Input
Amino acid sequence: MKKVGIIMGSDSDLPILRKTMDTLSALDIPFECHIYSAHRTPEEARDFAVNARSSGFGVLIAAAGMAAHLAGAIAANTTLPVIGIPCKGPCFDGMDALLSTVMMPSGIPVATVAVNGGVNAALLAAEILAVADEALAAKLDAKRKADAAAVLKKDEALQAELNQ
Ligand code: RP5
Output
């Protein structure tokens, strides 16, 4: 199976990416995770993106906050699918990172998930890989069913509490 590459702009983004890694691990998807910044280490970020396809990656996840240019800078240097996670910073409730990540110019796409959307980034990466992987697709179907069952169980508990 192709690997997922995870890049974050700072170790301060790590709590969000831990959810991404946990979700990928639960699906037995191999990944590598790095701290490369579009601004502080632009050469390393570029090199990672340029070499990603030949290094065995199938999809990349890039997470950054504030003036969040990382996902776009990665996408500029590869034609692998790039998923952007805008990370909430100290100002503007993450709107700064959301707009910096999502508003890409035509020709260089970034599939942007919600602010701090570490889990959905992993699931979207899994769905991309599952296009050519029936076993992974079956795991995703099973997870959907299990997640739905968990919600219905909560509803059952709520009804029991309200109707006692
Ligand atoms: C961005 O700046 C990082 O992705 C992080 O979200 C934000 C703040 O970085 P630190 O100052 O915490 O290292 O590049």
In short: The chain has a mean pLDDT of 98.
